[in-house]
Design a protein that fits this description.
The chain is an alpha/beta fold and about 140 residues long. It has a single domain, classed as Rossmann fold (3-Layer(aba) Sandwich), CATH 3.40.50.720. Strands 3-2-1-4-5-6 form a six-stranded parallel sheet, sandwiched between helices. The chain is globular, with a radius of gyration of 16 Å. The termini are far apart. About 35% of the residues are buried. The model has no long low-confidence stretch (mean pLDDT about 95).
Length: about 140
C-alpha cells in the first residue's frame, strides 16, 4: 500500500516508521526539513518538504497513485482541508484525519472524513483505567 503522511511530528514519524517496517511504500510530507529527524533510523521511505494543502506539492509527493492519506499536523483546519482535497480531488480510497478538538472531529466525521481525536482517545483510556482499578478494588 502507498501511504502519504502529512506531518512528521511524533505521531507522523511513528506511523511512517511502522508502515515502512511493514513493507509499505511511505511518503512523509512536512513543511519543515528538520522534522524528518524524528523518523526512525533505517527509515526507507521518502521525505518530501512541502505543504499538503497545495495540490501541485501533493502531486510531486505522489498522491495520484496513493492508496491512503493520513493528515497528522498540529492544525485541525490544515488536516481537514488537506484530507478533503485527498478525498474529493484525488479520490484517495482511505483518508484519515486527526483532530485535537473532539467537537471539530465530530463535525469532520459528519462531513464524511474518517477522523480520530487524541483528546477523546486519551480521555477514554484514562476513564477505562480509572474505572477498572476502582472496580478491581471492590
Amino acid at each position: 500500500m502507498k501511504v502519504i503522511i502529512m506531518g512528521c511530528g511524533r505521531v507522523g514519524a511513528r506511523i511512517a516508521g511502522m508502515l515502512d517496517e511493514a513493507g509499505h511504500t511511505v511518503v512523509v510530507m512536512d513543511t519543515n526539513q528538520g522534522a524528518f529527524r524524528r523518523l526512525p533510523p533505517g527509515y526507507g521511505g521518502e521525505r518530501y518538504v512541502g505543504n499538503g494543502m497545495d495540490g501541485p506539492a501533493l502531486e510531486r509527493a505522489g498522491i495520484v497513485d496513493a492508496d491512503a492519506f493520513v493528515a497528522v499536523t498540529q492544525g485541525d483546519n490544515r488536516n481537514y482541508f488537506a484530507s478533503q482535497m485527498a478525498r474529493e480531488v484525488y479520490r484517495i480510497p482511505r483518508v484519515l484525519c486527526r483532530s485535537y478538538d473532539p467537537i471539530r472531529g465530530e463535525l469532520f466525521a459528519e462531513l464524511g472524513l474518517e477522523t480520530f481525536s487524541p483528546t477523546t482517545i486519551g480521555a477514554n483510556i484514562v476513564m477505562d483505567w480509572l474505572l477498572d482499578s476502582e472496580q478491581a478494588g471492590r
